[in-house]
Design brief:
Distance between the termini: 13 Å
Radius of gyration: 12 Å
Shape: elongated
Order of helices and strands: HHH
Structural class: mainly alpha
Oligomer: single chain
Helix content: 40-55%
Largest sheet: none
Strand content: under 5%
Length: about 50
């Protein structure tokens, strides 16, 4: 995801993500899994097109 968004490495992405959201990407993802229905968790990210 970080590379697809134009970051040179995942550390840069994680740093910016933490500054914006106040959480690491991993922690944010875990919280989203807790609060969303199981159908949302099973979304297939391979269908996302980045241009």
């Amino acid at each position: 995801m970080a590379i697809a968004l134009g970051y040179q490495n995942t550390c840069d992405f994680s740093r910016q993500f933490r500054q914006h959201h106040g959480l690491s990407p991993k922690t944010w993802r875990k919280q989203q899994q807790i609060f969303q229905p199981s159908e949302a968790r099973s979304y297939n990210c391979s269908k996302i097109v980045v241009r």
